[in-house]
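Name: Substrate-binding domain-containing protein
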Amino acid sequence: MPATSRRHLLLGGAAVSAGALLTACTGNEPQGQDRAPAGSAAPAAGDKPGTPVTIGFAGPQADHGWLNAINENAKRRAAAYSDVTLEITEGSNDTAAQIGQVQTLINKKVDVLVVLPADGKALTQVGLQAMRAGIPVVNLDRIFASPQAYRCWIGGDNYGMGLNAGRFIGERLKDKPDATVVELAGMDSLELTKQRTQGFDDALRNYPNIRKVARQAADFTVESGQAKMAQLLQAQQKFDALWNHDDDQGVGALRAIAQAGRKDFLMVGGAGARSAMDAIKADDGVLKATVLYPPTMAASAVDLARALGQKKGIGGLSELEVPASLTLYSAVVTKENVDEYLPTGFH
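Structure predicted for Substrate-binding domain-containing protein:
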């Protein structure tokens, strides 16, 4: 997908468990009410409604399945709280336009801001502007250039995605002599792509019988995935596993694989699209797993913003304050656990 449309990195904690941890202190449903299924963006049982909070949300243009899921998770989570009003911008991948949108939210004097910047470095100054105006900023995924530009950061673990993909493939191939793998990466101009590749390569170092024999960078789109995968298949007549960085481009990759009639390797995807999970559950093709980069982080960002607006900490932690950063875990979804993660799959 476009260079202005994607994700970044940082610390540790699981996607589903992080949501449970956050809503333990920020939920507004009565005690004892049944918990909604994972990924539904409904708060868990927790405290009663508190001080009304207006949250300004400046997200990306929804030109990719994951990005659309970010926006939808934020909307659904906010709607589940009777004490939260969400002021949401149209969404833009143009940095100047997004800066203007955030400044409009600052001028409206929202209580808290949640910002997934089109470009973290470019939007750092507007983050600083909000913080100087006394508006706490929850920096979602793509990180600002200065920690002074946000109160809390929450996002995914790109290095962890590659690491867990490599471990899954490594365990599958550890007893196969002279095993070979190929990599269908994202955009090499993005730091996140480099992090995913680094994690993958580091994991493979633990399996001396496995060599990476080819790598092709795509653009996070169906079309690029199909074209680049076709090139890989033509160049590599035989290999044992494929690590694909993104499930959207994976749709195209799977088309190329089907057109080539190839079934002689296993494939691991990335991000957690519903189509990938459905294919994993059916278990009738090469796709055997996907490594999550959970868009539920947007729902958790709303939880964090609500807690900041109501001057609360997070249930389950001893500290009185919301953490400075929270990194979601890149779980591996396989046929054995796919039913647990299906509700979090995005379209």
